[in-house]
Amino acid sequence: MALGPAPPSDQPDPTRTGNGLHTRFAEDLVALRAAGITDLRLGVDWARLQPRSGMGGDLNGEWLEFYSDVLTAAQ
User: Is a pLDDT exceeding 60 seen at residue 1?
Assistant: First the structure.
């Protein structure tokens, strides 16, 4: 499962959506479980989660919520 390439800034490009994980993760997780898959590896895309580099770069709340939602659904 992949989100697709991250834009070089915090402005998402809606034409680059990867394989739909961002909008279909709950369905995908149900299908994986039905197939007997019990482990999940989730890579964190830091370019989205922390779009401004450096020690003072704030986390993007929308992406933080997304990752939290994925982990909650996977549980």
Answer: no
Name the residue among 17, 27, 10, 20 with its Cα closest to residue 64.
10
Residue 12 has pLDDT above 70, yes or no: no
Residues 28-66: pLDDT tens digits? 999 999 999 999 888 888 888 888 776 677 888 998 999
- Identify whether the C-beta of residue 42 lies closer than 8 Å to the C-beta of residue 25: no
Task: Tally Cβ neighbours within 10 Å of residue 15.
Answer: 6
Closest to 12 measured CA to CA, from 65, 73, 64, 60: 60
Q: What is the DSSP string of 19-36?
A: TSHHHHHHHHHHHHHHTT
What residue has token string 């709340």?
Answer: 61
